[in-house]
Amino acid sequence: MKCREGWLDNVRRVVSPNVNERPEGEVSAVVLHSISLPPGQFGGDYIERLFTNQLDPQAHPYFTSIAGLEVSAHVLVRRDGECVQFAPFEARAWHAGRSHWHDGHTLRRELNDFAVGVELEGDEVTPYTAAQYRSLAAVLHALFDAYPAINPARITSHARVAPLRKTDPGPAFDWAYLRHCMCQCTDS
Ligand SMILES: [Zn+2]
């Protein structure tokens, strides 16, 4: 997998309007998330609808609470490993919300300003699929190649950058297995 001009090659694009400019143009970290819509259910196009402001609040009782949210991520990795990209990496997607991170000696806020947001389709407690780890590893390698400021130490999670509000991608996410897949990934 390669990244060209902010987009992953051969990845389906669903353009989200929920983006703006990165204030410094910096692309230097990755925030991992999880999402499932409705919660605990996989498949369907509800996540894509949410990120494009096309979620029908009547389609499920839960959706009335989120239908007005304007949110996005750069990439969604679905259960079968398919990736969907919603915004070029140079754009600021809206995934981390209020957040902070110790970056060397500096406490930084607003990770959306400089981070890439990657959503895994999941519910935090169900194991993520091997296909998802393989695809995520390929996405991360493509990002390392395209954005030298991103490296393995600059991959974090929503739970870590917004600890009082968020828990995703949750205990089901196996960081050791991700590292294993990243070593296996030979960037085909
Ligand atoms: Zn999240």
TrEMBL record:
Keywords: Cell wall biogenesis/degradation, Cytoplasm, Hydrolase, Metal-binding, Zinc. Residues 16-170 form the N-acetylmuramoyl-L-alanine amidase domain. It is found in: Cytoplasm. InterPro entries: Amidase/PGRP_sf (IPR036505), Amidase_domain (IPR002502), NAMLAA_amidase_2 (IPR051206). It is an enzyme of class 3 (hydrolase). This is 1,6-anhydro-N-acetylmuramyl-L-alanine amidase AmpD. It comes from Halomonas huangheensis. Its EC number is 3.5.1.28. Its cofactor is Zn(2+). GO terms for biological process: cell wall organization; peptidoglycan catabolic process; peptidoglycan turnover. One of its GO terms (molecular function) is N-acetylmuramoyl-L-alanine amidase activity. The keyword Hydrolase applies.
